[in-house]
Specification:
By secondary structure, the chain is mainly α. The chain has one domain: Integrase, N-terminal zinc-binding domain (Arc Repressor Mutant, subunit A). 65% of the residues lie in helices and 0% in strands. It is flat.
């Protein structure tokens, strides 16, 4: 396609490789912070600094939330597995019998 395109492509791939390493590291840091002190940013200072660090490197918000949910979903599934312990979207569907 051309020399200029190849140079741009190389720069993009180099930048994306750095971003992937940073996002992975920060995602693991967020998961460890949630595991240590809970998923609330207001009460967990370690999580607060991890989220601030992720914002500093322009980590997408959905990736930050996914890292936080990764640990909290494990907490939901390792508890007593009562339907009340699960979020509403994971509760089994209640089938209402129809009159015939």
């Amino acid at each position: 396609m051309g020399r200029a395109f190849e140079f741009r492509k190389e720069r993009k791939f180099k930048r994306w490789a750095k971003m992937a390493v940073q996002f992975t590291r920060l995602g693991k840091e967020i998961v460890m912070a949630v595991k240590a002190g809970g998923g609330d940013v207001n009460t967990n200072s370690r999580l607060r600094t991890a989220v601030q660090n992720s914002k500093a490197v322009n980590m997408p918000k959905d990736r930050v939330e996914a890292a936080m949910m990764k640990r909290t979903m494990k907490n939901w599934f390792t508890r007593d597995m009562q339907p009340t312990a699960l979020p509403y979207w994971l509760k089994p569907l209640q089938i209402i019998p129809t009159a015939r």
